[in-house]
Amino acid sequence: MIDLTTLIVMILSAATPILFAALGELIAERAGVLNLGVEGMMIAGALAGFAAAHATGSPAIGFAVAAIAGAALSMIFGVLTQYLLTNQVATGLALTLFGLGLTALFGKPYEGVKAPSMAQGPLGLNWIIWLGLLAVPLIWWFLNRSRPGLILRGIGENHHAAHALGHKVRPVRLAAIAFGGAMAGIGGAYISIATVLQWTEGMTAGAGWIALALVVFSGWRAVGVLAGAWLFGGVTVLQLRLQAAGVNVPVQLLAMAPYLVTILALVLISARRGSASPGSLGQIFHTTS
Amino acid sequence: MSDNAIFRAEGLSKTYPGVKANDAISFEVRSGDIHALLGENGAGKSTLVKTIYGLVRPDEGQMWLDGQPFAPADPHAARAAGVGMVFQHFSLFDAMTVAENIALGLDHPPPRRELASRIATLSEEYGLPLNPARRIADLSAGERQRVEIIRALLGNPRLLIMDEPTSVLTPQEAEILFATLKKLAANGTSILYISHKLEEIRANCDRATILRGGRVIDSADPRAHSARELAAMMVGGEMREIDRSGRSPGAELLAVRDLTLAAQSVDGTSLKSVSLQVHTGEVLAIGGVAGNGQEELLSALSGEIPSPVGTVTLEGADLSRMGPTQRRRAGLLAAPEDRLGHAAVPGFSLTDNALLTATVRQDLAPGGMIRHGAARDFTQKVIAEFDVRTPGPDTAARALSGGNLQKFVIGREVLQAPRVLVVNQPTWGVDAGAAASIRQALLNLAAGGAGVIVISQDLDELLELGDRFCALNGGQLSDPRPVEGLSLDEIGLMLGGAHGTEVAHVDA
Q1: Given CB atoms, is A284 within the 8 Å cutoff of chain B?
Q2: What is the DSSP annotation of B33-69?
Q3: Is A167 in contact with A150 (CB distance < 8 Å)?
Q4: Which of B76, B96, B109 sits opposite A157 (nearest CB)?
Q5: From the CA of B341, how many Å to the nearest CA of chain A?
């Protein structure tokens, strides 16, 4: 058997990558930017973070580099969509493909290498888990109580009105995109540095897409994102235990379960509440003056 | 510069590719005046006020505010200098609360609780009741405008710019607005008031500067001129008198009998036992504040919402269960209120938009194959006969100004020779010249023997066009009365209680 503390640690750990990625995407989408490149930014963070941690022996430096790598990749998307006015859906998809391909190429030397071990924080949780948990109330406070958060929401809700009132639509959106990229990068690096402890091609395995779904089905709320991430983590741990216990269910079905259950639960929740998507989400902002 | 001028502009010019929006504009606004900026769509009013509010930088010219040179780089600078603005298309955030919307328009908003109490105080003072915690999406047009006004007033402006504020308001809401503006002016705030509603300006404004084609044509006391004279200055030529002659109502064409329809959406209105008749050569005018079943009535007539058997008949044939295409074939056509999105597809060319409604009656797609040449010819005809100003039939609908698109939308239906045409708000947000030509086209259609139903909030328009008048109120249609001899008081009684407008107390 497994004791409760260990189980909670495992669930929190499994939830952390998509929690980071989804919180980052939440900020971008509340600013009105739909970035479908989350998966690509996560995998970039996973490789860059792993490589940096391996080279320096410091997981902390690894996560810092992962954040920078995610943000750097997101800036490709940012410049294309905000200044060259490309379509956000197509550009985001391209970013994911680009990230996956780029890491497959540069990741070759790191296959089979082991990650440096991470220090334990309070209650047996490493400090990235703590950081993720702390980020939820911080982001809630930022969005709902701070003035920059109000401006960011205003820009996401109606960019024409925000512009008419003198708020800077593009710089704010660019900052939101960069934040989303950095958070996705940290989330990806958590998989390679803290969970799997090595680099494998395509190791984010769709976590970025789940993060995107979380943002939508949470109704663009930080607390909803946290609940969804925990549910995903819980089912992930459960299916791993079931696999380990040798239950007579095809392993593919079990591996599918966290994705299915998360999306199902979130669809049911959001169906009741109705959608509250930011009014300018995914729209190109263009002005002449 | 006269002593009591609060704002002065000298030689302001702004050129956009292909058009000189402002050409050496000079004028001044006196302290405590309500100053009208009058002009047709495209005369350069919006560019001018955006310049004053720091959204547009002039190519040439200077401005002074309170005697100080004034050249705002952005709206923050304009607000800091004492300029406030209320936008034509509300710059509000639907999903956010009143308080959040107001905070977004202030440069140094006070803490939440203090802001809420200041909103309450100010709205009390000016008779504009507002609840800071409500979401914009749940507010009426009049209440939304209050949010804009309170937001502008919280910045303590010396000069308040209002861009066509009454175009979305009911007459009652407009009255409340003017009471507020007069009180503001009495307290020393100057108001720059943009509109093309002449009577409104004559009744409420102290000075008027008239723009045409980006230039200042004249500066006048609007009370010293008749509406006709002002209109002539605005359009640069005499306004054509509407010709009401040549109509003689005859046999019954369209009949609606006891039509009851449940509301189609949460905030829709249900139609309650509506009956009406339209005869050949007749214009039936339906008045009332928008949101009282106007859209639902139009949808029930156009065929977007089918109704119970026997409720809608055209020359004896039952159309109740038919959709829009079948009704068009039978001769019942409609032009809905919302130009972009309902009456026209914004991203489609004019030709494609013409195809959307004219295919049946103009036989533009026999056997399912589109006759593009014929469609283009038909579109050209609409453009030519209704003076739609556009580069050509391939231009996207969204590229047209509101007035021009409205002329196209109405023209597209009129030229299909309908037996009965139903229009909702045919001249909403359309300048005087275009409105006159749209109205004349509707009258000509009736003179040719068709029946016309005009649904509108504009009483002047209804009285100008209609042979009979009835009021739609809370989904109920009053009995029709002949327009001849109908007084405004009687109309007021027919319209009954003005729905959704709180009559605020204004002390000043």
Answers
A1: no
A2: -EEEEE--TTSSHHHHHHHHTTSS--SEEEEEETTEE
A3: no
A4: B96
A5: 17
CATH number at residue A214: 1.10.3470
Distance of CA A275 to the CA centre of its chain: 21
Distance CA A182, CA A203 (A): 18
B76 touches chain A (CB under 8 A): yes
The three-state secondary structure class of B159 is: strand
- Grouping H, G, I as helix, E, B as strand and the rest as coil, residue A200 is coil
Instruction: Say if A87 is an interface residue toward chain B (CB within 8 Å).
Output: no
Question: Which of A151, A158, A164 is nearest residue B55 as measured by Cβ atoms?
Answer: A164
Mean pLDDT for all residues in chain B: 83
Overall number of domains in chain A: 1
Residue of chain B whose Cα is closest to the Cα of A289: B56
Task: Count the neighbouring beta carbons within 10 Å of the beta carbon of residue A2.
Answer: 10
Q: Is residue A279 part of a domain?
A: no
- CB–CB contact B75 A160 (8 Å): no
The per-residue pLDDT for range A97-109, each reduced to its tens digit, is 999 999 999 988 8
Residue B279 has pLDDT above 50, yes or no: yes
Asked if A153 has any chain B CB less than 8 Å from its own CB, the reply is: yes
pLDDT in tens, B470-496: 988 888 898 888 888 777 667 777 776
pLDDT for the residue numbered A33? 93
Nearest Cα residue in chain A from B80: A166
Residue B122 in this model has a pLDDT that exceeds 60 = yes
Round to whole Å and give the CA distance between B120 and B102.
Answer: 12
| pTM exceeds 0.90 | no
B93 contacts A154? CB cut-off 8 A: yes
- Which of residues A160 and B240 earns the better pLDDT score? A160
Q: What is the ipTM of this complex?
A: 0.77
Identify whether residues B228 and B256 lie together within a single domain: no
Tell whether B506 is covered by a domain.
no
A166 contacts B93? CB cut-off 8 A: no
**What is the predicted pLDDT for the residue at B40?**
75
Q: What's the rounded mean pLDDT across residues A7-15?
A: 87
Domain hosting A83: range is 4-116+123-273
A274: confidence class by pLDDT, cuts 50, 70, 90: low
Range of the domain at B323: 252-495
